[in-house]
Structures are given as C-alpha cells and as structure tokens.
UniProtKB/TrEMBL annotation:
Residues 110-333 form the Tryptophan synthase beta chain-like PALP domain. The keyword Hydrolase does not apply. It holds the Pfam family PALP. Gene3D superfamilies: 3.40.50.1100, Threonine synthase, N-terminal domain. GO terms for molecular function: pyridoxal phosphate binding; threonine synthase activity. GO terms for biological process: threonine biosynthetic process. Pathway: Amino-acid biosynthesis; L-threonine biosynthesis; L-threonine from L-aspartate: step 5/5. The keyword Cytoplasm does not apply. This is Threonine synthase. It comes from Torulaspora delbrueckii (Yeast). Catalyzes the gamma-elimination of phosphate from L-phosphohomoserine and the beta-addition of water to produce L-threonine. The gene is TDEL0A07380. NCBIfam families: thrC. Its EC number is 4.2.3.1.
Length: 513
C-alpha cells in the first residue's frame, strides 16, 4: 500500500500526474522546471513523538521518518535500514549530529548543533552521503543481471564554489555505474576545498578546473542539463539541493536535536538556520508540519538577503548582483528551494486545499519572476509564512565580531571556534535571546561547517589573539594530511560548453563508462 505522503508532484504542475520516490530522486528537477514535493505531509502523534521517537538513535529516527515518505515496494524495511547505516557509518561523531558542549556556559539555552562531522566537514554530507547510496541502490535494482553494455549509468555533473562539490564527490566516490564531474573556477576556491576535491583517488571521480568564474561553471552545467542529445547518451544526474532526497535526509537532525536539547520533553524550541538555497531550513519546515512543537524557524542570512526582504515586503525579487561575503556558501541570488515553501503556502491558503490549483498559482509566480525579475504575493501568503518563520540579516562586521565573542566567552581550557556561516546563525540567535527575554525557550543554532574550511575569515577574526593558532586550534589532523596527497586535476583552458562536453566524454571512456 502506498500512502498519499509517498507520491510526489511538481510545484508548477496543474496536472493530475504524480511520481514515485525513485523517479523523483533520479530525475531531480521536474520537466516543467518545478521542484518535486509530497503534497501531503505525514502527521506524527504526540504519543509517538514523546513516547517513542524521543528515545531513538539518529539512525533509527532517520528510518522512522524516511519510512513515512518512501513506499515499502520501492525500498523494503531491511534495505532502507541498510542504506541509512551505511550512509552514517562515515561520520566521526557517535551521535552523528551532536550538540556542542563547550560553548558559553552562561547561556544554557543556546545550543550549537554541529552538522559537520561527516567526511568533508560540512553539513551537506548529512544529505549527500545518503543520496550517493540511494543512486547506487536504484541503479543496482535496475541493472541486476544485465550485461555491462546494457547497464544504466548516471553521469553526475555539478558546479561548485566550494562545499557542494566535495560533499558530492565523497558521496559518490567508488559507486558502481556512476561517474561524477565537478566543475570549479580555477584559483577561486579555498586551498582546503581544492585539496578535498582533487585528492580522491577513485576512478569514477574527476574534477574539472575551469578557467573562468563560478557563474561560467554554473552556466556550463545548466547548458549540459538542457542538452537533450548529451543527456540521452549519458543520463546526466543532479546532486544540488533541488533533489528531494537531500531535504528528506536533513529532517532527521531537527527531530534528533530537539529531543537532545529538551531532554525528550515538549518544550519551546526555536531553530536558527544560516540559509542560502533554503534547503536546510526547509527540512525544519517539514519537521514542524509533521507535528513537532517547534516555536519558530529563523532564517539567518548574510548581506544577500532575498529571503529577509521577501518576509518583510511580500515581494520576491532577484537581485542583480551577488555580494561577496565572509559566508560564501550563502552568497546566492535566488533561493531555489523557497519554491517548495511557496507551494505549501499557496495550497494552505486555498479554501478547498486543491493541489492542482496550487501548482497553477506557483507556476504563475515563477513565470512572472522569469519575465519581470520579481513577483508579489498576497498578504495572506506572507501571514502564513510568518506563522512558522522569521528572519534576521547579519553583516560581515557582525559575523567577525561573533567569532571573536564566542572565542573570548567560551570556556577554558577549550575555546569554541565558529565558522563564518555558523557565526551568522549565532549572531541572529543572540539577538533573539535578548529580544525574547524568555529563559524557558531553547535556541538550536545550526552549525553548517567546520571552521577549518573557511580559514581566511576565522584567521581574520582571531589572529590578533596571542594564544591563537590555526594549525593547532582549528585544523583537524585528517585535513592536514591532504596537502601531501597526489592531486588529480583536469584543467579546462576555456569556459566553453563544447570543450567541457568533449573532456567529459574522453574521461568517461577512460573510466570504462
Ligand atoms: C550550503 C551551505 C549553507 C546554506 O544551506 P542552504 O540549504 O543552501 O540554505 C550554509 N552554510 C554552509 C557551510 C553551506 O555549505
């Protein structure tokens, strides 16, 4: 039996057609340009939440959550459990996503949720370790017993300005029938990020260092996705956060950290999330809608504040220039996953809860965005969003000041060092703690990266402290070793789609794929 929460549709579709979980994961983006969503969100009772789920391990909780969204006939229980076990066996922390222990002792209601204990030290591992295993699982099912030349293969192509590329490579390395090509702008990513991506020896992984900007790389990737001839030959797959499986995998840590922070009780909790493409915080929205009593989801943005502006004005407007900030993973012009929230807001605002009509409304908004560069929604839609969300904008100066303050205030002997993305969230959280003045409220501030990944911003903030040393206090042993490893880089001399396609085909031939 398939439940209504296990079928999916596009945010822009007004047709009856639905898709299975497998179709949604493999396809990534809907053919009408929309994103896939489960129109019905599963409901979990308070007895189940606080009688059962509050006592589960991270992996067991992940299983209970995913089971609700994925039909048994697509992935039977034992297989789903195996996928989850394998995906989180690569994490360094026993409880996968722990709450930090040595932050400021005087603020016991501020919890920093460390999401960076996966292979690449960024929160994207939580989702991409799982997505890599899912791709492999579905391909193995399809390819069972087929001879080599008939096997279905996936060629993953992505562009990165840093974190996504390495997390995707570590999620897909060594996976059968899958190859991965990650484009990045030559000389424009941090040395650690380049080392992480280029020292993976697996044959199915190839990084392409492209002479150009990040936007050039992204344009090439988009053009490759739109090239139906290349696509039909190579089955191009997407790993960016439009993939529904990434959102699904992230729901677990919202439930898990809530229970950790409250000791399993139904207390008041606000989540504060450093946001860019809105994928992380959207998982928090599903958590709240499933029945966990979350007080608010707080969007923390840097100076690229399209979301903050939308919640204040009701106008969603693409800015024409992206500001380069200390938190580059959040430097975006448009938050692609925001479309999913807008669909639910449109749906809930309709008296008859008509999914087909919600798709039509959403499609109109995004057509308008494409033509006019902006759209404005009714006040009722904004009011709907404000029931669950609020937003805070944090400047570069405040980001640096927050890294300093946490370092100074945190307990000896170990000082706590924030990465700049996490600092955006912690700055927003401290503002809220002051404004709310409610000692019974818990604040869970999501930490999205290890500080070693963003050395420049961290050193700028802390190098004036005499007893501070990046190598001793920040850089993990495992990352120190990377610089000694052999690098595998393919230079692409010109940001040109035909050239990149040729290089990919040559490399695929070498890989035997
Ligand atoms: C990707 C990323 C973010 C933003 O997450 P979204 O899901 O795009 O909102 C924040 N911080 C870091 C370190 C990231 O890598």
């Amino acid at each position: 039996m398939v439940s209504p929460c296990q079928v999916y549709r596009s945010t822009r579709s007004s047709a009856k057609e639905t898709k299975s979980f497998e179709e949604v994961v493999i396809q990534g983006l809907a053919s009408d340009g929309g994103l896939f969503i489960p129109p019905t969100i599963p409901q979990v009772s308070q007895e189940t939440l606080f009688g059962k789920w509050s006592k589960l391990s991270f992996q067991d909780l992940a299983f209970e959550i995913m089971r609700l969204y994925v039909a048994q006939d697509e992935i039977p229980d034992a297989d789903l459990k195996g996928l989850i076990q394998r995906s989180y066996s690569t994490f360094r922390a026993n409880d996968i996503t722990p709450l930090a222990k040595n932050t400021t002792g005087d603020k016991e209601n501020l919890h920093v949720l460390e999401l960076f204990h996966g292979p690449t030290y960024a929160f994207k591992d939580v989702a991409l370790q799982f997505l890599g295993n899912l791709f492999e699982y579905f391909l193995q099912k399809t390819n069972k017993d087929l001879p080599q030349e008939q096997r279905k293969k996936i060629t993953v192509v992505g562009a990165t300005s840093g974190d996504t590329g390495s997390a995707a490579i570590y999620g897909l390395r060594g996976k059968k029938d899958i190859s991965v090509f990650i484009l990045y702008p030559t000389g424009r990513i941090s040395p650690i990020q380049e080392e992480q991506m280029t020292t993976v020896p697996d044959k199915n992984v190839q990084t392409l260092s492209v002479k150009g900007t990040f936007d050039n790389c992204q344009d090439i990737v988009k053009a490759i996705f739109g090239d139906s001839d290349f696509n039909s030959r190579h089955n191009v797959g997407a790993v960016n956060s439009i993939n529904w499986a990434r959102i699904l995998a992230q729901i677990t840590y919202y439930f898990y950290s809530y229970f950790q922070a409250t000791g399993g009780k139904a207390d008041k909790v606000k989540f504060v999330v450093p946001s860019g493409n809105f994928g992380d915080i959207l998982a928090g929205y599903f958590t709240k809608k499933m029945g966990l009593p979350v007080e608010k989801l707080v969007i923390a943005t840097n100076e690229n504040d399209i979301l903050d502006r939308f919640l204040k004005s009701g106008t969603y407007e693409r800015s024409d220039k992206v500001a380069a900030t200390l938190s580059p993973a959040m430097d975006i012009l448009i938050s692609s996953n925001f479309e999913r929230l807008l669909w639910y807001l449109a749906y809930e605002n309709l008296a008859n809860h008509d999914a087909l009509k919600a798709g039509e409304i959403c499609n109109n908004w995004f057509q308008q965005l494409k033509i006019e560069g902006k759209f404005t929604v009714d006040q009722a839609i904004i009011d709907g969003a404000l029931k669950d969300f609020s937003s805070e904008r944090v400047s570069n100066t405040e980001t640096t000041a927050t890294i300093k303050k946490m370092y100074k205030d945190s307990q000896n002997p170990k000082k706590y060092i924030l990465d700049p993305h996490t600092a955006v969230g912690v700055c927003a959280t401290e503002r809220l703690i002051k404004a709310d003045n409610d000692p019974s409220m818990h604040y869970i501030s999501l930490s999205t990266a290890h500080p070693a990944k963003f050395a420049d911003a961290v050193n700028d903030a802390l190098s004036s402290y005499e007893d501070y040393s990046f190598v001793r206090d920040v850089l993990p042993e495992e990352l120190k070793k990377l610089s000694a490893l052999e690098k595998k880089i393919k230079l692409v001399e010109k940001a040109d789609i035909e050239l990149v396609k040729t290089v990919i085909e040559e490399e695929l031939a070498k890989m035997g794929l």
